[in-house]
Model the fold of this input.
Amino acid sequence: MKTSEFNALVERITKKVIERLSEIEQQQSTVFGANQDWLTPGELAKLRLISKKKNEKLIIITEFSFENLVNTCHFNPQNDMEKAIVQAIKNGQEFMIIKEGRTYLPLFSTGKYALKQKILAFESELYRYGGNFVSLKESNQKFSAEKNVSPYENKQNRTYLTAKELITKNIQPETTLLLSEQVRLTDQAKEYIREKKININLINEK
Done:
């Protein structure tokens, strides 16, 4: 067999395997939202690895509005997606929300301070109910457990500082915050720090 024929054969087999894996993954996943084209077979495989309950059917939300956030937190579902999330919460089932699909993100820069605080509280509540906020951008980087930690989760000996904690501690704008190098900031905490122009000094405690 010529090299060109062998390469063509390998390419055809690879294509068939990917198609079959995609079919299997789609059978094991329920995807909601307008951004479903984001979830290539490779992305679905990564989300499966990130999942805390790898043997369960995945519920993936690719588009999530402020109304969706409020309705699900108040257990008042208005559509099929919200009903699926509420049912997942009742069943103790994990559900994934793609961070890039949160359409309410502009409210962090344009909304009132109290509204930002409320959004963070709702997101924290969903996380405690079993929601897993996942960034596709982060999952495309070097894959590691540390880079895919959900926004309000603590692991091992590392401490994760959330925006909610910064708001609760009333950290004033343009002040300097001393943090251990072991502390990791959530995405919302980073946004809050940038917005308030808070300075960060890292301390090596080793």
Observations:
- The CA atoms of residues 28 and 57 lie 5 Å apart.
- The chain has nine helices and eight strands.
- The chain has two domains: 3-150, 154-206.
